Amino acid sequence: MTQSARDLESTFLRAWQLLLANPIVMLPGLIVAIVAAAVESYVFAPWASSIAITSTSGDANVGLAARSVESALYLAFAMVVYIAQVSFVTGMAGAAWERGRATLRDGWQAFARRGVQTLLAMALMLLIGLVAAAFAPVTFLLTLIAYVVFIIYTMPAVIIGGDDPVAGIAESCRLALGNLLPTVAVVAIIALLAWLSGALANAVSAFSPLGAAFISLVVEQVVVAYAMLVVTGEFLKLRTAPGGRAV
């Protein structure tokens, strides 16, 4: 299926309508951002300070071991909260497209059912991304651009479509290749929205750093939720189109 400009426009419009009707889709991202900031400030930052003191005034080996443990715990924490955010937002986006209404329960069910598969998909995507990044300098960034375009439907394929990680990436590539120009347009528009949200935060920071942080947080979650609604809508539309696969 190759979409027309009107088909793509309808996806963006409907995604915006769904976001306005379901602002709760932004809530998981806001919660994750607040929890992550709190844990960083009140758990890992004090621990890092104590490690620094240990390293300079005590046994250096103890300090090195403590830093290694801290890094491992922080990485594990970051992965869990990121997987939770992606699973919740994608699951809720799928529910919004399916019945026009999304709840946190939809997000929780997606996380509970597909959390492990989401982790494995992210790990595989990271490996592919590292390869794309390695070749980026000699391909004028084309490998990175191709990577972003062709993996864009992976999370909906894994979380909503029920694919395993390898099949999810393959399905994303198949859908993107069969609908290349509209998919490139989706990636470009989402990137533009992300850039505009950053520019807005920078403009506000000249007047109020605290206000900029708040606006940046809110606008970022609006963009994340809207982007996932767009991507999920495109995934559902392409996968159920003639020649696609039923979800």
Describe it for me?
Helix content is 83%, strand content 0%. It has helices at 5-21, 27-57, 60-99, 104-135, 142-150, 154-159, 165-178, 180-205, 209-239. The longest helix is centred in the first third of the chain and has 40 residues, at 60-99.
What attributes characterize this protein structure?
247 residues; mainly alpha; 9 helices; 83% helix; 0% strand
Report the C-alpha radius of gyration, rounded: 20 Å
How many individual β-strands?
0
Measure the end-to-end span.
16 Å
Order of helices and strands: HHHHHHHHH
Task: Compute the average pLDDT.
Answer: 85
Offer a quick outline of the entry.
This protein has helices at residues 5-21, 27-57, 60-99, 104-135, 142-150, 154-159, 165-178, 180-205, 209-239.
Provide the fold topology:
Elements: H1 5-21, H2 27-57, H3 60-99, H4 104-135, H5 142-150, H6 154-159, H7 165-178, H8 180-205, H9 209-239
Helix pairs in contact: 1-9, 2-3, 2-9, 3-4, 3-9, 4-5, 4-7, 7-8, 8-9
